[in-house]
Design goal:
single chain; 373 residues; alpha+beta; Double Stranded RNA Binding Domain; nine-stranded mixed beta sheet; five-stranded antiparallel beta sheet; 9 helices; 19 strands; 24% helix; binds S-adenosylmethionine
């Protein structure tokens, strides 16, 4: 057995042992797809420069490249929307924009998709093409459509898949619009996060079909939802456990903050719930549903820390701080008082006894997306 084959086998054994890879058809599909074939362009390894988070290239054949391809590790493959590993030597401090997902997450999601042979699947976020290849190995490439936003990334995935003799329908475009020509689909799976499940995905899934997507937002908390599409054009379903997080779909990334409003304006009141609640992942997730367009920043003003939540579209904002007596004070302005909405939503959740995310249901209707418990 070659070193590569052995590393591949060890990875699959580990994924089976930790419960990500559960059923024989997916074990067979995962065994048929060597991940390194989709990482021949190299990846970026995380490092720090002067205390700042940074990335440095690891190219094919370099020390550690093959081993990393077969570790249960997310491997970043594009930075700042254009830069690939071959483009730089040294370090870069910008944000990742494409990656090869953690193999355990890819396979866990494929298992959670609950497919049967012959089903037609639309994947959003092709990335390296690795998950597209595993899907194709399981269902046949004629049943797989994958949409990638970035043309360069899509072209590289197409080449890697073709090299391997796999030819799914690969579309370069905005996956939030789905791909009508290939529908209706039995399943839609997204390997980028969304702020809200797009109506197009529901329209392009047959009634009874399912959408598996990570619903997240600008407060930095997300969860994996498995929605069933109903005859009336709505979709609903549970959140699955695990604090799953993906880079947000590019059109769903937050707009620039622009000029901050005058944070001295606005009405003050004592807060019922303090901003320290936002250190908790699930609380942030719950709040996001109430104020989906809000971004968060922390400022040092007037000698104290202020936690600012701001919706740049409506102009509504809240600034929270602790006064000398340790009480939380909320100052708010704009048409939709941000902390009023956050407290109301958190209050309902607290009143219900803070149920766990596995007890949450997401519904998507023409009126938008809602969270229930
Ligand atoms: C985590 S990567 C996908 C990893 C991939 N499944 C794999 O196994 O390599 C997320 C991808 O989603 C893409 N993406 C972001 N927004 C998108 C959108 N609106 N439509 C389609 N793809 C999008 C990104 O360019 C990125 O390549």
């Amino acid at each position: 057995m070659t070193n590569q084959a052995q590393l591949h086998e060890e990875l699959l054994d580990a994924l089976a042992a930790n419960g990500s890879l559960r059923t024989d058809p997916w074990k067979k599909a995962a065994a048929a797809v060597p991940r390194h074939e989709f990482l021949r362009g190299g990846f970026f390894r995380h490092t720090t420069v002067d205390g700042f988070s940074a990335w440095e290239s690891v190219l094919e054949g370099e020390d550690g490249w093959l081993e990393a391809c077969y570790r249960d590790e997310l491997l970043v493959t594009q930075i700042a929307g254009t830069i690939v590993p071959a483009d730089i030597r040294g370090q870069i401090t910008r944000e990742p924009t494409s990656s090869s997902t953690l193999p355990s997450l890819v396979l866990r999601m494929l298992e959670d998709l609950q497919v049967e042979s012959g089903m037609r699947v639309l994947e959003i976020g092709t990335g390296t093409g690795y998950s597209t290849a595993v899907l194709s190995a399981r269902l046949g490439d004629q049943n797989v459509t994958s949409v990638e936003y970035d043309e360069g990334v899509a072209a590289r995935a197409r080449a890697a898949l073709a090299q391997f003799g796999i030819h799914p329908t690969l579309v370069a475009g905005d996956g939030l619009l789905g791909h009508t020509a290939g529908g209706p689909y039995d399943r839609i799976i997204a390997t980028c996060g969304v702020k809200a499940v797009p109506a197009a995905w529901i329209e392009q899934t047959r009634p009874g079909g399912a959408i598996l997507a990570t619903v997240g937002g600008w407060l930095g908390a997300s969860e994996l939802a498995r929605l069933t599409v109903h005859n009336d054009g709505t979709a609903s379903g549970p959140l699955l456990s695990g604090q799953v997080s993906f880079m947000l779909a590019r059109p769903h990334t937050p707009p620039p903050l622009g000029l901050l409003p005058d944070l001295s304006e606005g009405k003050e009141r004592e807060a019922i719930i303090g901003a320290d609640v936002l250190t908790d992942w699930t609380s942030r997730f719950v709040v996001q549903f109430a104020v989906p367009d809000v971004q968060r920043l922390t400022l040092n003003r007037n000698g104290r820390t202020e936690h600012v939540l701001i919706d740049v579209t409506s102009g509504s904002w809240a600034a929270l701080y602790q006064d000398d007596r340790g009480r939380w004070i909320a100052r708010q302005d704009g048409p939709d008082p941000v902390w009023d909405a956050a407290e109301e939503q958190l209050g309902r959740w607290h009143a219900a006894g803070t149920p766990a995310v596995e007890e949450f249901t997401v519904t998507v209707t023409a009126d938008g997306q809602n969270l229930h418990w």
